[in-house]
Write a structure and sequence with these properties.
By secondary structure, the protein is an all-alpha fold. Helix content is 80%, strand content 0%. Helix 1 runs antiparallel to helix 2.
């Protein structure tokens, strides 16, 4: 079975799941389908995690921008009203 075609590196866990299915007597085509489903699910969650990390970086930048804007606005208001 060529597990590398599932999208790059295949974890040892997926190989172990395939071997466990085969040892349990699951037919080869069903074991392959189950391993492919697990790999696709893993790839989907990896993509979601990457997007969340990217969003966290953008959110941090947004917090700094809002904070600096607030500081400058308060400084201008202080200068006008004092």
């Amino acid at each position: 079975m060529d597990l590398n075609r599932l999208g790059g590196k295949v974890t040892a866990m997926i190989s172990e799941v395939y071997e466990a299915f085969r040892a349990a007597g699951v037919p080869d085509d069903q074991a392959k389908a189950a391993v492919e489903a697990i790999a696709e699910n893993d790839n989907r969650f990896t993509g979601i995690e990457r997007k969340l990390t990217e969003f966290d970086g953008k959110f941090t930048l947004l917090q700094w921008m809002v904070g600096l804007n607030l500081i400058f606005t308060m400084a201008i208001a202080w200068k006008i009203f004092s």
